[in-house]
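Retry 2 of 3 after timeout on previous attempt. Resubmitting structure tokens to design endpoint.
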């Protein structure tokens, strides 16, 4: 079995609003004192046994894993890679197969025999051969329903980078272990059929809808917003008016509108085109799309990751240069007219944060990273806390690796202790994006599966 170089870090935090739980208060106090530390903590309380793990008959008949001692050894290879906002449900893997966890029992993921549409193109069958590698490769964000029963995901790596569209809008029910195919699309661009694969997903605040941002050939354009009604089992194509809304995460804002990243069309990348953020709003006349552009041109950089917290209304976006380095990030409020979006932040040589203008950011993204004229840390990974008050960043500069916790209200940064620089090193091509829910923070490390509290 291929050894996965990932790690899971668990932060004990049980509420959204600042100051209303002990874990938040403890983290605030530690941050104020400048002593934020990771403490090892096993498996977020998930205990797996032969009695509470349900594997398929096919898996057991193939002897993988075998009973008794071999089964116990196999259990040691299983780890959670996503946890629901309330911390009760989770998705687990041994590196190949996927299991669901509902707080009491782990079930091997299996296609639903009663729910969903017919797998007419064989896409679900393709996914089920190695579900972890195909559905969740490279750490795209996993969306959870408010009650933690359902999970959904997009996959930018498969759809955009590998140009493989065999991932349909799938829904995972952790209470049954079922994966449900909500729609069946062709994986071919030019055969005349509707084609598409989800690159982002989110659930509505009331839990009735799950929305997907598709990339392919749906509705006449390369990208389309679709919405599935969990009460009526109806799939709706909401809007398809652009080719460029496919860069990943999909978020519901406080007003019920949806937000995702926008790329720049290929024919405009050398002519000053600018990437940005799209909002999809449902009005009395139907769905409408609005766009907020970045203040730097595509030749300087574009947003590649986007995080949002409903609790604070704060959004966090990573800015990548066309050459491939991440130096700057955005911290802004989309619910307040995208307040703060034109300010670009970076870590200087001493790890302190500096705000620069769009013009300075544009120059910085084009600067040769080997130059000593402009010394800034590269951001390897980042995540926004559920309450939206902190950002966690993994950075590197000239071989020195750091894990920095940033309080977004005053942009003060504190280095996180309890983890060695060697444990932070990871190749960009092997990077798994961090995830932080109310009870769990997941972070990619090269040393294997580990768990910590953040104190």
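Retry 2 succeeded. Sequence:
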């Amino acid at each position: 079995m291929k050894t996965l170089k990932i790690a899971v870090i668990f932060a004990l935090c049980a509420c959204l609003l600042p100051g209303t739980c002990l874990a938040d208060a403890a983290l605030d106090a530690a941050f104020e004192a400048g002593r934020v530390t990771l403490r090892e903590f096993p498996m977020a309380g998930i205990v797996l046994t032969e009695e509470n793990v349900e594997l398929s008959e096919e898996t057991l008949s193939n002897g993988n894993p075998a009973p008794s001692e071999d089964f116990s050894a196999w259990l040691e290879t299983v780890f959670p890679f996503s946890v629901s906002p309330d911390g009760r449900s989770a998705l687990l893997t041994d590196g190949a197969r996927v299991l669901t966890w509902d707080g009491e029992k782990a079930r091997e993921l299996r296609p639903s025999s009663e729910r969903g549409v017919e797998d007419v193109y064989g896409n679900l069958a393709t996914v089920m051969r190695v579900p972890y590698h195909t559905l969740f490769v490279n750490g795209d964000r996993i969306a959870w329903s408010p009650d933690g029963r359902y999970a959904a995901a997009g996959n930018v790596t498969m759809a955009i980078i590998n140009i493989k569209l065999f991932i349909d809008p799938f829904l995972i029910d952790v209470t049954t272990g079922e994966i449900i195919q909500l729609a069946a699309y062709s994986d071919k661009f030019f055969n005349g059929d509707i084609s598409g694969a989800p690159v982002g997903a989110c659930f509505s605040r009331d839990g009735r809808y799950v929305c997907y941002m598709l990339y392919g050939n749906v509705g006449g354009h390369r990208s389309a917003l679709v919405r599935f009604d969990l009460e009526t089992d109806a799939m709706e194509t909401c809007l398809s008016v652009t080719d460029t809304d496919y860069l990943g995460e999909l978020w519901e804002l406080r007003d019920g509108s949806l937000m995702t990243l926008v790329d720049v069309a290929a024919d405009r990348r050398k002519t000053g085109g600018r990437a940005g953020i799209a909002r999809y709003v449902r009005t009395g006349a139907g769905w409408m799309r609005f766009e907020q552009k970045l203040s730097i041109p595509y030749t300087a950089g574009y947003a590649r990751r986007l995080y949002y917290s409903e609790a604070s209304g704060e959004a966090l976006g990573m800015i990548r240069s066309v050459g491939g380095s991440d130096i700057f990030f955005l911290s802004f409020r989309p619910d307040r007219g995208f307040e703060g979006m034109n300010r670009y932040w970076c870590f200087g040589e001493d790890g302190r944060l500096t705000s620069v203008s769009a013009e300075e950011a544009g120059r910085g993204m084009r600067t040769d990273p080997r130059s000593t004229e402009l010394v800034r840390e590269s951001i390897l990974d980042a995540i926004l806390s559920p309450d939206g008050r902190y950002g966690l960043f993994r950075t590197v500069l000239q071989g020195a690796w750091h894990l920095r916790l940033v309080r977004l209200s005053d942009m003060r940064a504190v280095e996180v202790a309890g983890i060695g620089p060697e444990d932070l090193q990871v190749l960009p091509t092997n990077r798994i994006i961090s995830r932080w829910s109310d009870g769990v923070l997941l972070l990619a490390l090269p040393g294997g599966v580990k768990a910590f509290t953040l104190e």
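Attempt log closed. The CA atoms of residues 96 and 133 lie 6 Å apart.
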